[in-house]
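I am still getting used to backbone structure tokens and would like to learn alongside you. Would you supply a protein for us yourself, any chain you care to pick? Start from the sequence, derive the backbone structure tokens from it, and show both lines together. Go ahead whenever you are ready, and we will take it from there.
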Amino acid sequence: MPTDLPPPSATSALPPVLAGPLLRRLSPERLILWLVGSRPLQLSLQLACAGSQQHLVALDAPLCRRLRVGTHAWLHLIDVPLDTPLPTDTPIEYDLLLEEDGRRSGIADWAPHLLYEGARRPEFLLKSHLDNLLHGSCRKPHFPGADGLAKVDSLLAGLRERPQARPALLMLSGDQIYADDVAGPMLAAIHALIRRLGLYGEQLEGALVTDSDALYAHPLTYYRREDLLPAFKSSEALRERFFGGVEKPVFTSANAHNHLVTLAEVLAMYLLVWSPLPWTLIRPARPALDADLAERYATEQACLDGFLAQLPQAARALAHLPCLMIFDDHDVTDDWNLSARWEETAYGHPFSRRIIGNALIAYVLCQGWGNDPDAFGEILQRIEALTADADDRLDDAAQDELIDELLKFQSWHYRLPTTPPLIVLDTRTRRWRSESHPSRPSGLMDWEALSELQQELLDEQAAVIVSPAPIFGVKLIEAVQRLFTLAGHPLLVDAENWMAHRGSAKVILNIFRHSRTPANYVILSGDVHYSFAYDVRIRHRSGGPQIWQITSSGIKNEFPASLLTCFDRLNRWLYTPWSPLNWLTKRRRMEVVPRIPHRGRRGERLWNGSGIGQLLLDVLGRPRSILQHNADGSAPIRFVRSAELKRASGQAKDGIVKNARLRRGKAE
């Protein structure tokens, strides 16, 4: 294993806290936090509001569930109900006090990088209304660009003296990790951290390696994991799907040769993308590689170094702002559950089933639980039983049984009772499968899930819906995806959009037209690696709902620039709001009008750049301002209506003319 550091001889060789705290779902009556320690920690939560007495809560069971995932790795899932609700719209300082060896230490002692200059403790704000939120998706560590989560940190730093201007929460709408696209240096760090912390191993069925130790030590484990699959015909589809590196000439290319396999690998990646502390415990060495792969490794290492430089800022943002999450495909694997045929292939083989299941177990522990702890009670008990009985390896049968339960689980979605309510959709596991054409893309939600969504929306005045894939996307790109699907190659173009399946498209559009569903909808999305905003209206209806599709992607990822420019221009020419081609789409009864990036080039509707989106809402749940903050430090982008841009341009011209007249007058 590529590291020159031995495993620690004792627990004391490691810092007590490895990652966190992360603020998860917060309300005046209940606080949810996530933390990982190198041992089971005795913690107390301290709360302090301005002008009030400090409040100390001992985090004993059941307020803190300590779940062991390795010899020196314990998840601390903190869930604190409050008898007296906390105040809203007021900064609240908090601290996690650690008691060891008769001493009490706080975050300032064991994670000073989480504090802003001059602060004694981190703080959070509970907003009375969902009037301001940040959102984004797609954070790939080795992408050669700045990190949008570091931009979140700089935004929060600038608002410390203006608490009313702070966002209510950060919504991460998918691809918080890339389990299927891992840089070589990241995989080396993952393996070093597994060894350093003693993360639990496992047996592997259906591969040419028998267990996790053999996988990590195998010379093909870097960049050539596809060769570790069984070499017989029934595995060809599996090989192509998970490790083939299939070229996708229209949009992007997959890079699955370092696909994460074991639970320990996925858990280690979460630690490494959310905290700088694990990086201080390891010194990964480059594995033996040929010249081409060594060059690739060096390029990826340079990109990863940039990610690591900004990681303390990202961790600080997650410790100051409540964060909600939902998976998309890369949190598990590319094109996850794309079609019925895909599911038949992936779940019909023990090796691929384990790969998917391990990613789901890690998602529960690191993302899903913090969104809605009440939904995961039974699942969490099963995970606790699995890890509690482990010595250095998980029980194979129990792990498979847990995965079977997760593949049947139907409560990944959730709702926040904010004003307006925030409804987060699961568009990955409850798919509307095509029975007549199993290779065609499934609908993103089935009829039953969509019916439940409609019930959630009845008689609400406004709603913010989080759909990882845009409901109203770029029509030209969707048309290209449809052509490839009809040709039998949906995998080549990531043919996953709401309009790709007639049933789900019809039902979701009918929900918007229902007379008892909200008057104002905001749809937040990610997935596509570019950002845009649309105003959507129902044609020929004066009193119909107002819909805004707002997409921010990626946090640390971008679309190929020249290709996106081409698609953007062609889409504008072919699908203007008055184009007859609109009547050939499933959204023909909807008028979709794009907003314009105010600093974009002429004709530009899509914005390409890593960063984070921001949405400001009025009291009726309508957007007051739609922003995209760029991770590279350049000025933010506002998505504005065409008329607003023309007015601003006209005012600027008038100003130039007036200044010219004044100069002429002075000269005369």
